Amino acid sequence: MNKKWWKEAVVYQIYWRSFFDSDGDGYGDLRGVIKKLDYVKKLGVDVIWLNPFYQSPDRDNGYDISDYYGIMEKAGDMAAFDELIHEIHQRGMKVIMDLVVNHTSDQHPWFMESRSSQNNSKRDWYIWKDPKDGREPNNWRSYFAPSCWEWDKATGQYYYHSFAVEQPDLNWENPELRQEIYKMMRFWLDKGIDGFRMDVINLLAKKEDLSDAENPYNISYLANNPGIHDYLKEMHREVLQHYDVMTVGEIPFVSPEEGLLYVDESRNELNTLFHFQVADEMPVLDMLRFKEIQTSWHEGLKQKGWNSQFLNNHDHTRQVTRYGNDGQYRIQSAKLLAAMIHTLPGTPYIYQGEEIGMTGVRFDSINDYNDIAMKNKYNEEVAKGRDPEEVFESILLLSRDNSRTPMQWSSSSQAGFTAGEPWIKVNPNFKEINAKAALEDSDSVYYFYQKLIELRKQNEVMVYGDYKDLLPDDEHLYVYTRSYNDVTWLIVLNHDDEQQRFTFNGFNNRKLILTNYKRDFEENEEVLHPHEARIYKIN
Ligand code: GLC
Question: Confidence band (pLDDT; 50, 70, 90) for 522?
Fold first, then answer.
């Protein structure tokens, strides 16, 4: 496998609006990120991924863009951005930006022109269809709405939106539009960014056959349609190949076989991807299925393409709440999940706050939430006559706001995030869980991440090593090896709230490198405490 910087990197995701507010308006901002760069650097990460800060009416927290060349006022201005990339590079880190080109805001001038009349020159930049029998062209749903079609009374056609009504999809069949996007990508790359996280990039091509879906709730018809690989190859040829950059595609609804088509190094499309087999299938952890997924992706991409490892981000509930134990064993569990992400094959992603073991949140009322996906779902279900309390309860665990509450910097007012009123409430547990406390405790989750990242830097086996699951049928213990040249590492993880036993048959010559418990092995090394994680080197 070719060695590449982005394979060896650890990425830290900054959801800037919830990171640090430098001017007291209640929103995090780019200057706030600059203020906290030393904190990020100290962790040891190599790359920062910034969520979108382009100009936007902000209906979907920046994923509804009205000007690709402008900066949202809440985030700052172009001078702040230029300073930010300079400061990141100064510290020897790189920065990747969100690229959101499946859709724009309905306030983007392109869409305003497009909807102005059927024969406007930009009509074809979006997807317009005539009604069928006086209604929507078909029964397809969108991610955030009951239909992916929105009626435009003035011009008598429907437009297509994979997400909210305010996010019309661009028509990638139009070559002029594609060139305009490539030009915009070059603009940011020429400013010196080091790559893109590409928002729902496998949705660009649309299905031509508009017949009704058998089950409209399975919205996989929105993705992976014919033509998608031609667009990505063209994007690579026209733009990406001219820069030494990293690209990671957000690619829902793919198996390893389909995923490989996006990241196979010989195909010149993307470097790596986020697939959603774990996130989509598991509201809570299913260890056996999780292992199957890891093995199938490892085997599927082996020697050909590169994976990514993440368990949460701004769209997915915090990992220690969703997949671990955020109560009695929060610290051990947060460390175990960290050990797993950093030792499985693929580039690891840390979502801000994960490194101090931040948890999901539970507010009292729907009015305390902001997430457009959650709110639209709530309104849709309540409109059907369902009990509002029951609907509320049912959507809490996966609400995207679980991971969007402000970064907890200290135990002072608003967790030290803002001097004003935060745009979304702070998680009430900030007095106990915060970065200041973590930095003062040498045994904290933060320093465990720091050690893992350092280990990964110094040991290629963690990056390039082959992967083998030793206990595919065990529901609690996850035990695997990574091997590279003549080096073998053994990773032993007990995900359970109870003790578990592992006999080290065949691994007699082992040396413990890292663990999340202070252990005296004269007790019994075969017994693993609840949420204990160990990394061994085998001689
Ligand atoms: C991606 C983003 C999500 C956004 C959606 C629409 O899934 O991660 O936050 O709402 O795309 O752009």
Answer: low
